[in-house]
Amino acid sequence: MSRYHNGHALIAENYGKVSALHFDPVEKKPLYHFYPGRIIFSIGSTGCNLHCQFCQNSEISQTSPEDFYPAQEYAPRDLVSLALQRKENIGIAYTYNEPAVWFEYMLDIASLSSAAGLKNVMVTNGFINTAPLDQLMPFMDAYSVDLKAFTEDFYRRITKAKLEPVKESLRHIRRAGRHLEVTNLVIPGLNDDDGTFEDMCRWIAGELGPETVLHLSRYFPTYKMSIPGTPLMTLIRLHELAVKYLDYVFIGNITLPEGNDTLCRNCKHLVISRKGYLTNVEGLDNEGRCKNCGNFVAPV
Ligand code: SF4
Asked: What kind and span of H or E run contains 94?
């Protein structure tokens, strides 16, 4: 994918070719317990190692750098300079398409940006070997990982990939002690079965810890999938199941009648309130601890 052999080595075709860059709320990655309410410089390229039928970014993920006309070239140091221009920015997020497909570029930027005092965030499908994951680990502060379903059948049919390597990446990130949040896009009839969903939540709690943030994201029809969007009631039902195992479960990609707030897992006090992308961290102290009981919730 996106590499050619020049007679001596494999060369990444998309090195330095940027399809999109924006300053986004960190909540958009989605990360709810990593510098809540702050912004992060977000960059993407083209290509992906998966072929999800429901891809919301297929115009960049399912194309090549040559076919994506607006792509612009940036040297790693130039992107770090752009990221440093906004004082309130916490760092750089590798996102929009799968960043593992421009691994070399991401690694070069992340090492520079880390040295400049910025945070690095990888928004990924998790379908990556542990060796490259280890190369990234010293520079990557947080991971937002899709766990798209909890059956090999779903991964094979709907994404053309496999579940087990994604589970291993999640375990690996957790063992390395990096910040980790998991996103599950709920698609009616494909991965919203209560039993399998509960198995997934039980696995997350057991292998990654009950404090792991889980985002239940609303699917809507796009790319090659025409199944109608996820009903709110389905998300609410699955949320009720998930909170039996996990302390921090959020519904996303849909406007909720009430906020999507964080209550401290220890004392249940409100520590972070959210309305859309408006985030208030008034229940946390300067070290990200609950002001009521001192439990650590999120770096701020
Ligand atoms: S992993 Fe993400 S970017 Fe790649 S095809 Fe699937 S949804 Fe699209």
From this structure: strand 89-94
C-alpha 86 – ligand 1 centre gap (Å): 29
**Which residues, judged by CB distance below 6 Å to any ligand atom, belong to the binding site of ligand 1?**
48, 50-52, 55, 57, 61, 97-98, 125, 159
Output the pLDDT for position 169: 98
pLDDT means over runs of 10, the chain (300 residues)? 78 90 97 98 96 96 82 94 97 97 96 98 98 98 98 98 98 98 98 98 98 98 98 97 98 84 98 93 97 98
Q: Which residue has a Cα nearest atom 3 of ligand 1?
A: 97
pLDDT at residue 1, as a whole number: 52
Amino acid 9: pLDDT: 82
The amino acid occupying position 127 is F
49 Cα nearest atom in ligand 1: 4
Considering the domain 16-254, what is its CATH architecture?
A: Alpha-Beta Barrel (3.20)
Q: Could you give the CA distance from residue 91 to residue 163 in angstroms, rounded to a whole number?
A: 30
The domain spans of the chain are 16-254, 261-300
Rounded to the nearest 10 degrees, what angle do helices 232-242 and 194-203 cross at? 40
172-209 exposure pattern, b = at least 16 Cβ within 10 A, e = fewer = bbbeeebbbbbbbbbbeebbbeeeebbebbebbbeebe
**Which residue of 59, 95, 97, 102 sits with most ligand 1 atoms within 8 Å of its CB, as the best mutation to test the pocket?**
97
